[in-house]
Amino acid sequence: MNRQFLEQMQSLLKDEYNDYLDEMKKEPNRGYRINLLKTDIEDFFACTDLSNEPTGFCSNGYRLRKDDTSLGRSIPYAAGLFYIQEPSASAAVTIMDPRPGMKILDLCAAPGSKSTEILEKLNNSGILVANEINRSRSEVLCENVERCGAANAVILNDTPAHIADQFASYFDMVLCDAPCSGEGMFRKNPDAEKEWSIENVCSCAKRQKEILEDAYRCLKPGGVLVYSTCTLNTVENEDVINAFISEHSDMHTQDAHASFGRGAYNRHNESLYAVRIMPMDHGEGHFICRMIKEDNGETGFLSAKKSEKIPEFVLSFLDSQLSKRYPYLYMNHDKVYGGTYPFIETGRCMLVRQQVYLGRIQKDRFEPSHAMYMSSYCSFRNTVNLSDEQAMSFLMGNALIYPSERGYCSMQWKGFPIGFGKSDGKTIKNHYPKKLRISERNRNGTGTV
Known about the structure:
This protein is α+β, with helices and mostly antiparallel strands. The chain has a domain of about 240 residues: Vaccinia Virus protein VP39 (Rossmann fold). It is built from 14 helices and 21 strands.
């Protein structure tokens, strides 16, 4: 490893430095989180053979075994039953402690591990705005949110400054999982180690302070702000928090009462209340600080978006497919969306997706979307239950010979939706998105993982 980095770690860890070096010789921690929007822990383990060793960083997080491979090409993954996540990466949301009904912002959200975890906690109540400044990464974020099945997420692709302009003093909670030098990811990402330098650390800290300022502007009085990184130095962690607190007298750090990790370094001023996770703590490396804003101002307000009139044939189609209607429907340019929260005005912010994209009007008919059939909000009236072999064939994009009721149908494995098709009574045409399909070359050949 880089000599300057090792000198930094020796100065930071002192007597634990050799323990750190020994830990870094081991394999990186691997884990996953069960998606409680779509299943419960008992049902999940009944249909998979993944490890049930808890991580200790969240209530539904578990460690992976060394031989747990090809998980992203498995049927349970396609069904959105779990999310692959480094164990300690879930700690920030555990400390944040979101509750149903809250308005929450994930300011630097891709690829979506923390966003999907927040959405599980919200349980389709309240709203999550998840933003990612990089366009291609925002599309990955959207895919992961759709797979998790949440019906109350807004995906944006914009700068933190633009988000703060639109959503001033609006959110009950803001997560600022800031871009960092990634020192906690060296074991799993060798490129992060190669790119490390003191100059990059300082550059990251400068950017983190700017993003944290935008996060502060989005937070309503009385709200909670969580700052987190996956790096180890004090420059990007304690020093950033100390500088932020010194400039905002209305912000105070809170004791997270965490059952994992350790306290902050440089224990002075407000940085005392922060949680560090080191590789010796059975995670890769994280810093998490929970702060609260004094309740001495006005909360921001956003008007609702005005929908075009939705044709009756669209409503009839939705009623024929879904067990219940979404509380809120919205249509714009022939595209129809459903959600559990009023559709909010996002102003000039670049909107990728608002809640659940149900489909679009094509002339005099309605073409449903994959996202509609992946949503956890409701069940489906017309279902087709597939075997392991049939489900894998469907995920590869194949049509299925399967006598069934004519029309659109929810394709399911063990009762869990994995997509949709359209039946002529004998054959089901495949509507699984091409970009998500599993190829013959990389299939793992089994329904369980």
